[in-house]
Amino acid sequence: MIVRNFAADIKNAASVVDFICGCLADCHISVKNKTLIAADEIFSNIARHAYDAGGGNVLIEIDIRDKVFITFTDSGAPFNPLAYPHHMPDDFSADSDIDGLGIFLLKNVTCDTGYNYTDGKNVLSIGI
């Protein structure tokens, strides 16, 4: 298992992608792409929405077995993305302000997802 802590700041999104890419060096390109789409969406949402102005951290754990499993842990406001509706809107365009599109992407590129809120922490796990 590979573990790394990042400040929950959108400026760190590229560093998160680089970290995950390095961990997936031996994985098939389709697994890498799906994992990076999901991880970027999750980290970006935590960075934008989980914490107040004081900020916080995101612990990322990567476990590569027969699948890639990544767990994101933060101490921000409780939020279960799996409990929200997801859809691809009929009128999607680059200019649209659409809630739920990230959740749609997450649910469509992962095969195993799980969420719990324990001891003041959001724990979101994905499998690719």
CATH class: Alpha Beta
Number of strands: 5
Structural class of the helices, strands and pairings? Answer: alpha+beta
Mean pLDDT across all amino acids: 89
Determine the fraction of residues in helical runs and give it as a percent range.
25-40%
- How far is it from the N-terminal to the C-terminal residue, by CA? 15 Å
Number of domains: 1
CATH architecture type: 2-Layer Sandwich
Radius of gyration: 14 Å
Poorly predicted runs? none
Spatial sequence of strands, sheet with the most strands: 1-2-3-5-4
Largest sheet: 5 strands, antiparallel
Helix-strand pattern, N to C? EHHEEHEE
Describe this structure in words.
The chain has 128 residues and is of the alpha+beta class. It has one domain (2-127): Heat Shock Protein 90. Helix content is 32%, strand content 27%. It is built from three helices and five strands; from the N terminus they run βααββαββ. It has helices at residues 13-23, 29-49, 101-109, and strands spanning 2-7, 57-64, 68-74, 112-118, 121-127. The protein has a five-stranded antiparallel beta sheet with strand order 1-2-3-5-4, with helices on one face. Strand 4 (112-118) and strand 5 (121-127) form a beta hairpin. The model has no long low-confidence stretch (mean pLDDT 89).
